[in-house]
Amino acid sequence: MGVRFLVLVVLSVTLMVVDARFTLLKPVRSQMSLVLMQSYWITDLPQRLWQGVASQFGSRTELVAENEKLKTENLLLQGRMQKLAALTEQNVRLRELLNSSALVNEKVEVAELIGMDPNPFTHRIIINKGERDGVVLGQPVLDARGLMGQVVELMPYTSRVLLLTDTTHSIPVQVNRNGLRAIASGTGNPERLELRHVADTADIKVGDLLVSSGLGQRFPAGYPVATVKEVIHDSGQPFAIVRAVPTAALNRSRYLLLVFSDSRTPEERANDAAQAQEAEQSGEAPAIVPTTVPKPALPASTAVPVAPAAAPAAPAAVVTDPKAVKKPAPVATPAAARTPAAVPATTRERQ
């Protein structure tokens, strides 16, 4: 037995050395693998049958449970959608009462990510929509979960987007729970944002949702930005350290949304508001003009003191001619007011 064992060991070592050093045994190994594969398949058949049956029953149970869960969630979401529809209509009515021109639903367009900036210290991406598609500088970009960034460079058919987590980017946000305002700045980490200059006594805690406040005149208000992950209070520092995780999948999303809300610059919006205010004031001017218009008509009333139809208690602006009294309404401007008052004066002088 010892001799046989020694012979087998020597043979095994020889075969391993030959197989490692030379290619003589490769055809033999390939043919043996074909033969042994059948035996492997036969020996593994009971195990595979058992796993198949278990997976069939297990997957059916899981599918039934998942179906019930989805039905429940669908019912809850439908109830919330009904309430959201009522709230949206109420918001529209309130905005109409306040004469607000803010949009409730913005126009969006789907874009696709086609490239990324190779610089690890710059968080920028390239999308397949450009200037020819109506994209403008500073246009907000978001995915299915929240805001991602804004357009910083335009090309005819592509655009470059600066992400929220870039070290040069900041966005004004507010806590959705209580409306606390802050500035969220990028840290260079695609999974983290920091809130700058938050007072140590501020009402902010882990789990709070941060939404865009719209105060920067760049991003529309109300879109989710990040979720507070860590709040560190230091009694020796005036500001707390607040770290948040972006809600958008910045390093995983491929399809994005371009928001078309209001492409006007703040200066253009201010000019339009000033012009609207001037137009409104000019529309109220005709109601004020008649208080100063009758002054040119005073000589006409003083030139005919002997007219029998003149009323002693009539104000100086009233014309004494009966024909003119019947038509006082057309007075709208000073030029129009002088004409009907001057004609009776000349006729009376001739008489």
Automatic annotation (TrEMBL):
The keyword Chloroplast does not apply. Pfam families: MreC. Residues 272-287 have a biased composition (Low complexity). Residues 114-259 form the Rod shape-determining protein MreC beta-barrel core domain. InterPro entries: Cell/Rod_1 (IPR042177), Cell/Rod_MreC_2 (IPR042175), MreC (IPR007221), MreC_beta-barrel_core (IPR055342). Residues 268-299, 313-351 are annotated as: Disordered. Keywords: Cell shape. Belongs to the MreC family. PANTHER family: CELL SHAPE-DETERMINING PROTEIN MREC. This is Cell shape-determining protein MreC. It comes from Pseudomonas psychrophila.
